[in-house]
Fold this protein.
Amino acid sequence: MRFNLARKRFRDLDEQEILALAISSEEDDAQIYRGYAESLRTDFPASAAVFDGMATEEDTHRKRLIDLHSARFGAVIPLIRREHVSGFYARRPVWLTRNLGLDRIRAEAAAMEHDAEHFYLAAAARTQDADTRKLLGDLAAAEAGHQTTAENLHDKHLTEGARNNEEDVERRQFLLTWVQPGLAGLMDGSVSTLAPIFATAFATQDTWTTFLVGLAASIGAGISMGFTEAASDDGALSGRGSPVKRGIASGVMTTVGGLGHALPYLITDFWTATTIAIIVVFVELWAIAWIQNKYMETPFFRAALQVVFGGALVLAAGVLIGSG
């Protein structure tokens, strides 16, 4: 509560403080755009050039604001930033934007320009000095027109070939970060839990016990796969992306794969539960084959033979062991 009381309301700022706030905001936005450019430079050099250009635009705005401040109030600019003003728009912390996808980064940039436009319009309405009012109004129009500027920069740097290359890189990154570890987890969860679940089912013919074993096996396998994936590669050299994202994808899909054929054992009738569980198993295995074909470009019949045949063998092993 004391933090909120320490912040100044926007309507209480004087004209010097408004200019100081605008200067610091332009500095922050230029730095954010340069951060976006740096994070994209290796895989998306053309888009990085776009954000470099937008950062240069923000530098130009900052210089105009500083020149006006120097003419009206002198060279010493008060230290006032977004977080010092109650209700003022905030920017996302850099660690929350560092691993965003290309489309999300572009959306973040558009939102930044929208926020800046509204700030300049509100600031212009509160100033009496003609030169200050004119500059703030011009900057509001410039922020509104940044979409056109961005489009011009896109046309300059993002040729059709460059755009196609970046789309290929983004698709590859999506596959390496989400699809590949998620698919590995789904395969492991679906196949590795078959033997213990069906061995328990046929050994005990107790649906609740079978469900508990399946639940424990699925969650345990999910935790193990998630940590293994995250710890095996930090993505710095392989380019496979965030280890946290890969660990989440692998761990969640492993758990889902196991729970698919454990949940039917919440049904109290043993043979009904087992019949549904076996149907679910084959649906899971065919789904894995389809994902391999769609995203990993594995021939469908080869994927089906490997996954369905292998899963059937593990299922049969579990049933035989449990029946013995």
Notes: The longest helix spans residues 160-192. The chain has a mean pLDDT of 83. The first strand starts at residue 8 and ends at 9.
